[in-house]
Amino acid sequence: MAPGTELADLAREAAGCTRCPLAAHRTHVVFGVGDPEADLMFVGEAPGRDEDLRGEPFVGRSGKLLDRLLHEELGVGRERCYIANVVKCRPPDNRDPKADEIAACRPYLEAQLRLIRPKVVVTLGNFSTRLLLGTDLGITKVRGRSYPVGDWHLVPTYHPAAALRSGGVVVAEMRADLIRAKQLVGWG
């Protein structure tokens, strides 16, 4: 079966998920979007308000910054990548996801990784980095390099929301991390 078909089946399953309390307050499950055979995958934290309303990850201000950086540093649009989050439903008031919520959604993310088989995964922020790297270190301690994880490389970087809050230095470091990901993918 093709990865796209299996991802679509998994997305339908996730749409009815009630594994954690986040299901009670969501508008949409925000499963993931993009190329089901992408060499580059981005994993964020959790959907925000805009994402919950549209059912698509990174469509608000953070998504606009991510799209701009993809274009400027990688020369691609989001259609060449796959974009997902650690948790698929919006936590109330955009709070951080809780450990039980992350654990409930983890099988979906693991299945996405297994089906897509990216060469490189860029983690956006602490939650995805800690989960996929298996560390308790924060993003400032682990970004700036890549890590082999199974058959792919993990490139940790800041969440675009942090870059929007912090400004130029963080955006410049995100750019450097994206260039590292681009080289690992083999896009030049």
Features:
8 helices, alpha/beta, globular, single chain, 188 residues, six-stranded mixed sheet
Describe the protein in words.
The protein has helices at 3-15, 49-54, 61-74, 99-116, 126-133, 139-142, 160-166, 168-185, and strands at 33-34, 40-44, 82-85, 120-124, 147-149, 152-157. By secondary structure, the chain is an alpha/beta fold. The chain has a six-stranded mixed beta sheet, with helices on both faces. A hairpin with a 2-residue loop joins strand 5 and strand 6. Helix 3 (61-74) crosses helix 7 (160-166), helix 3 (61-74) packs across helix 8 (168-185) and helix 7 (160-166) packs antiparallel against helix 8. The protein is globular, with a radius of gyration of 15 Å. The N and C termini lie far apart (31 Å).
Helix-strand blueprint:
Blueprint lengths: L2 H13 L17 E2 L5 E5 L4 H6 L6 H14 L7 E4 L13 H18 L3 E5 L1 H8 L5 H4 L4 E3 L2 E6 L2 H7 L1 H18 L3
Parallel strand pairs: 2-3, 2-4, 4-6
Antiparallel strand pairs: 1-3, 5-6
Helix pairs in contact: 1-4, 3-7, 3-8, 7-8
